[in-house]
Amino acid sequence: MKPHPIAVVPGGQAELAVPDPMTAQGGSACSVCPALPTCMAGAMGMLGCTAPELIIGGRRKVGRHQSLYRPNDVLATLFQVRSGQFKLVALDLMGEQRVIGFYMAGDLLGLDGLATGQHQLRAVALEDSEVCEISYAGLQAAMSASPAALRQFIQLLGHVSLREAATSAFMSNMRCEQRLGYFLLNMSSRHAALGYSGTSFMLRMSRADIGSYVGITPESVSRLIGRFKHNGWITVQRRNVGIADREQLQRLLSADPIPAAHSSVP
Description:
Layout: E1 6-7, H1 40-46, E2 56-62, E3 67-69, E4 77-83, E5 86-92, E6 97-103, E7 108-109, E8 122-125, E9 129-135, H2 136-145, H3 147-171, H4 176-193, E10 200-202, H5 207-214, H6 218-230, E11 234-237, E12 240-243, H7 246-254
Antiparallel strand pairs: 1-5, 2-9, 3-8, 4-7, 4-9, 5-6, 5-8, 10-12, 11-12
Helix pairs in contact: 2-3, 4-7, 5-6
């Protein structure tokens, strides 16, 4: 099953997160932040474009299931994930909610508002999380004053576009088990890149969210996870997943995909 085209429509009923004045702090906090190496503002600082503190307006705590922003909210701030995880949700043309991405520490949220000045999607925290607020006006000023800052931002947009296009193209004609295998290996790599274990990690999203993202039913997700576990490829304890046989999962992905016209979804 291929993803449905995304329609720009409002959606969602989760409560919107509000800034916590006790955590709205920038300043020297940036220099000791563990996420600095993966932070866009931090990267600009390392290039000598501008100090991170000049464009980071503060930090915001977002409770589990709260919305960081919703469709039609005015774009005033971009958000760098400092801790926790988020999902991006849109409504497809059939009016159903669809998860189109998962975001972890170091990832940038809010880019969906750049085209029109209003957010097109809904960002929802999967667990208690924290983000750094990057002033869009401050970012624009930094890019106007520094060609290096502008190049850094354009490169960031390019990397995001390539990653999403590659993921979409890779999964578009894969079998269901290949999509789930790709998802698990991708989450493993992302955790490892952040310095966490890539062989044992917590899946903060529900199986319905996973199914929505990879294009299969929640029941199929559960069935395939059970099959992977039975085969000895993964271990599962509630939401904690262990990669027990990475080679077999990678071999699964290298198998010839079924043409889209003949693929089926359980």
